[in-house]
Amino acid sequence: MKKVWFIAFFFLTINSYAQVNIIPQPAELKMPESAGAFIITAKTPIILEGSGLENPARFLNDYLKQVYGFTLPVVKKAGATPGIRLNFDRLDHPIPGAYNMEVDAKGVYIGGDNATGTFYGVQTLLQLLPTTKASSLPVAYLTIKDYPRFQYRGLHLDVSRHFFPVSFVKRYIDYIALHKMNYFHWHLTDDQGWRIEIKKYPNLTKAGAWRNGTIIGHHPGTGNDSIRYGGFYTQKEVKEIVDYAAKRYITVLPEIEMPGHASAALTAYPYLGCTGGPYEVQQTWGVFNEVFCAGNDSVFTFLQNVLDEVMPLFPSKYVHIGGDECPKESWKKCPKCQKRMAVNKLKDEHELQSYFIQRMEKYLNSKGKTIIGWDEILEGGLAPNAVVMSWRGEQGGIEAAKQDHDVIMTPGNYVYLDHSQAKKEDSLTIGGYTPVKETYEYEPVPKELSAAESKHILGAQGNVWTEYMANTSKVEYMIFPRVSALSEVLWSPSEKRSWNDFEKRLQEQCKRYTLWGTNYNKTFE
Ligand code: TNX
């Protein structure tokens, strides 16, 4: 009998040893010469040695409950009892989120630079657990010293083209947390729907959140089916989501699009357009000529009032104001826009767009916020304090960094997660083919930049435009496994990255997706 137990323990231990497949790869990972495993059971305490670590403990317990069906007791002291000790260590990494971790016979010790670091240590611990449901969970003995490479590690979600319920947005935020990422860019307004309640302008959600057509697209069979489709988040729900994210050390970055991609707002309040309308919430994807009128002061008043309601909901120091894909046709035909150009000595409509963005920047700066805009905001002159999101390749980001502006890299050919990731993709996608390997091999700091200019690259972000993602399962199918690849690009020291090694660890990661009940693309290559 004794022998059987010994053999069982031996296999359990060896098995757990083999399961050290952490994504993103930690900066330093050491396995002891004599392998072993600490076993977590429902009796193992979580010991809060440091104060203010309730959030990491709660996340750990929520995860255990959801995946393995049990939780652990949370205590302040446990004497000599082995357990999971959450604490702080003095670490002087410049970017928040560093942690140390040690697993031995005494249990698991996690020491973060602050609660964020301890939280990331917990994320690593979750990846040391078995990828099948069990009631005793071996954790291999090891030592880790880990810290993030970039300060901005983002994932975006477009909720305009398709609308997703609060429950899914929370799940999405969990995915971000599980990958040690820290920004959720919430694309709340676009031509196909306005998705955030604004009390001063009720028509934005009464009319602007609804369109005639459940699915949108130009491909055969995806056009208008005339069924009313839409939805929006109340301010109460927004607060709930922002709070949910904060408990996971994630900042929610709201995006209110201007001056283009404005059909939903124009439908709700036609005076905001150059012609006065009528307009309609769009039923297909694309770029539309009717945009916010740049010659009308009441447009600026409207946008300031909208932002006055948006800002208190989002503690983020950044507010994203779009700026992409704004056709200039309606401004060319609009006497008020032409007059504005003459009065302000603007030589073309690009400069008028720059005037628009700069005027909004001034307002947001006066409220203590920094604007982020898509790389089109470079055209006609960059607003003085703007951060640029480089999406049409890397050139916009390079240009902005050279002009001494901060940059977030989101180049389409690497990190657009709406592109298909399988060579033979049956479902409809947009934008081309970007396999997981391409995302993995992305390097956010362009070679063209000097050391000083490189400091402006805050990080990168995966963008998830949902023209062809009509439900949550399709979103998961599109983002996984590429989000796992992106997390390593953003977190791990560049010299630690290796596609061959990642590909092996990804096998285990796919088992975790299954454990989470998450859809993913299984034919990525
Ligand atoms: C361009 S990326 C857009 C989006 C579309 C996307 C489709 C960007 C700033 N604008 O409006 O959804 O292409 O890939």
UniProtKB/TrEMBL annotation:
It catalyses: Hydrolysis of terminal non-reducing N-acetyl-D-hexosamine residues in N-acetyl-beta-D-hexosaminides. SUPFAM superfamilies: (Trans)glycosidases, beta-N-acetylhexosaminidase-like domain. Pfam families: Glyco_hydro_20, Glyco_hydro_20b. CDD domains: GH20_chitobiase-like (cd06563). The active site is at E325 (proton donor). It is an enzyme of class 3 (hydrolase). Residues 150-493 form the Glycoside hydrolase family 20 catalytic domain. GO terms for molecular function: beta-N-acetylhexosaminidase activity. Its EC number is 3.2.1.52. GO terms for cellular component: membrane. Keywords: Glycosidase, Hydrolase, Signal. Gene3D superfamilies: Chitobiase/beta-hexosaminidase domain 2-like, Glycosidases. Residues 1-18 form the signal peptide. Residues 20-147 form the Beta-hexosaminidase bacterial type N-terminal domain. GO terms for biological process: carbohydrate metabolic process; glycosaminoglycan metabolic process. Belongs to the glycosyl hydrolase 20 family. This is beta-N-acetylhexosaminidase.
